Amino acid sequence: MNRYSPGRAGWTVACLATALAAPLAWGQPASAPSPKEVAKLRSLKLPDTPYNYANVELPAHFKSRAVRDLDNTPRENPITDNGATLGRVLFYDIRLSANNAVACASCHHQKHAFSDPSGKLSKGYEGKHTDRNAMPLVESRYYGRGRFFWDERARTLEEQVLMPVQSKVEMGQDLTKLVEKLAAASEYPELYRKAFGDSKVTRERTSRALAQFVRSLVSYQSKYDEGVAQVRSRNDDFPNFTREENRGKAIFMRSCANCHMPNNQDAIFSTQNTQNNGLDADVKVPDLGVADVTLDRNRTGHFKSPSLRNVEYTGPYMHDGRFAKLEDVIEHYSTGIKQHPNLDGRLRNAGGPPGGGRQTRGFDFSTGEKAALLAFLKTLSDPKFISDPKFSNPFEAE
To answer: Is the peptide bond before 316 cis (omega within 30 degrees of 0)?
Structure first.
């Protein structure tokens, strides 16, 4: 879910295309299956007892006051097992798009930590490119400002989840028609009843359910999480880390944690405000980021940053997918930072002497330091998360 789109269809569309004996052609919505064909060719598989979304036992470093303060869950929409289950079904349902071609999951793939690996820019329901690459959704719950998209134009997650559905590039759906479409589907009235007490399908309930599912996408079972639980301070060497991983952790804490671990917490790995990280020097690039929304020239080139958790899986990187590999991202911060007028002050003198001084292109990491940083960032990978069945596609082709 990015500026104007999600991306190309996932495996659900492939299954449908195979069953229909005709591959879906981007730009030809008439070739997509009708709602009746969708219902006939796909079956919903849910456990008799819903998965646990509401009462997950998180590790101690997720329970600190600093982390709790970042939780943007509103009192009026707490995560419930049945609510998140409905959200999961909606997230993977291609009927949310106007031509039954793409779902939210088409641009947010579980095995890629709910990011879009398909190209620099995501694609919508008719195959048109969007302006940005879809953001990873991991740890969306822990963004204290509660604003979403790269440019933070959505004020809440509840507002954000329906904006791609309505986008003329992303999913092309009219919300009134969507409500009618879901209410007419045999499986939804009961799912809405379990989630909200009665079977009425509304746009507000649809929004709330999708937001519950997205907030449930919390990753906490990485090698890093195992290590931080074994030490008194994150600055200590982790017993389960290799020497190179511990070296990379030390470099990260020295050079990167000031942005990516705000409030001195040990869990989330995401900035809590928008920044200009020196991708471009020119203030006249086509995508102005937050300034496109606020019209504040001082925020030109500002973008929200996703969590670094599972970053190994979430390429390509940055809002426009300009970096194909994680090594490219590290190289940017090492030698590629551009001196934009709005460059974040913490990067303006990166690599310079204490107290400021000469401006450099970046942190000037050595070859060994780059390798160590890469090794550390991979300790944030959570294989259990990207294969957890409660986050997977609940539809199966018959």
So the answer is: yes
* Token couple for 264: 């001195």
310: left (phi over 0), alpha (psi -120 to 50) or beta: left
- The rounded distance, in Å, linking the Cα atoms of 163 and 185 is 22
At 33 the pLDDT is 67
Q: What token pair was written down for 340?
A: 């934009």
pLDDT in tens, 130-140: 999 999 999 99
Spatial CA neighbour of 120 closest among 7, 4, 12, 286: 7
> Above 70 in pLDDT, residue 322?
yes
The rounded Cα 41 to chain-centroid distance in angstroms is: 29
3-class secondary-structure state, position 285: coil
Beta bridge partners of 115: 109
> How many CA atoms does the CB half-sphere of 171 hold within 13 Å?
28
Residue 129, beta-bridge partner list: 123
On whether the CB atoms of residues 307 and 115 are closer than 8 A, the answer is no
Residues of the chain with CATH 1.10.760.10: 11-218, 223-378
Looking at domain 223-378, its CATH architecture is Orthogonal Bundle (1.10)
Main-chain dihedrals φ then ψ at residue 84, nearest 5 degrees = -70, -30
Span 182-211, pLDDT tens digits: 999 999 999 999 999 999 999 999 999 999
Which segments of 330-370 are extended strands (E)? Answer: none
Q: Reduced to 3 states, what is the DSSP secondary structure of residue 112?
A: helix
Characterize 327-353 residue by residue with b for buried, 16 or more Cβ atoms within 10 angstroms of its Cβ, and e for exposed: eebbebbbeebbebebbbeebebbbee
Handedness of CA 240, 245, 249, 250 (dihedral sign): positive
Q: Rounded to 10 degrees, what is the CA torsion of 92, 93, 99, 105?
A: -10
Cβ atoms of residues 312 and 326 within 8 Å: yes
pTM, to two decimals:
0.89
> Cβ(126)–Cβ(132) under 8 Å?
no
CA separation for the pair 206, 387 (Å, rounded): 25
Burial 108-135 (b: 16+ CB within 10 A, else e): bbbebbbbbbbebbbbbbbbbebbbbbb
- Three-state DSSP class for 302? strand
367's enclosing H/E stretch is helix 367-378
CATH architecture of 11-218: Orthogonal Bundle (1.10)
Tokens of 143: 């963004």
